[in-house]
Automatic annotation (TrEMBL):
Stated name of the protein: ABC transporter permease
SUPFAM superfamilies per record: Thioesterase/thiol ester dehydrase-isomerase
Species the sequence originates in: Flavobacterium qiangtangense
Length: 159
């Protein structure tokens, strides 16, 4: 997919917990996102974006690879208003090399390593790398659990 996508259409996160601005590139195995770190961000400490912010950015980036299978490919604004939820089930590895400053823009690239898909949920293992310009900030391998949110009648939606 080559069009930039406003990730707010596809994640349940809202400010102050939204840590991705745009999806720059997305296919079944790779995603690239961008995020501008504003000084008022809840994870900015002493002028720097904290490690927990980098981890949340990575998780939100990674979730878009798996979450895309829950949405109609032609609906880039999620007009069907599907709601997908997910969480980090484990962090397998994490190395933080540097923290970006408030006001800087980071790019995060995630690659699907493995996934397990059922009618009710998906689990996956993702490799993720975050950069600020040429600076390599972080790398990690995380496991995510993702599913479509239950409908208002209490039932679970399926794909």
């Amino acid at each position: 997919m080559s069009a930039t996508i406003d990730i707010q259409h596809f994640l349940p996160h809202r400010k102050p917990m939204l840590m991705v601005d745009l999806i720059l590139e997305l296919n079944k195995e790779k995603v690239k996102t961008t995020f501008e770190i504003l000084p008022e961000n809840i994870f900015v400490e002493n002028g720097y974006f904290a490690e927990v912010g980098l981890i949340e950015n990575a998780a939100q980036t990674c979730s878009s690879i798996v979450a895309q299978s829950y949405f109609d490919k032609a609906d880039l604004e999620n007009k069907d208003k599907k709601d997908v939820i997910g969480f980090i089930s484990s962090i397998k590895t994490l190395k933080v090399y540097s923290l970006p400053k408030a006001g800087e823009k980071i790019e995060t690239i995630a690659t699907l390593i493995a996934s397990f898909v059922t009618e009710m949920y998906t689990t996956c293992t993702m490799k993720c790398e975050t950069f600020c310009g040429e600076d390599f900030l972080m790398e990690c391998e995380i496991n995510l659990f993702i599913k479509e949110k239950a409908d208002e009648k209490g039932g679970s939606a399926t794909r």
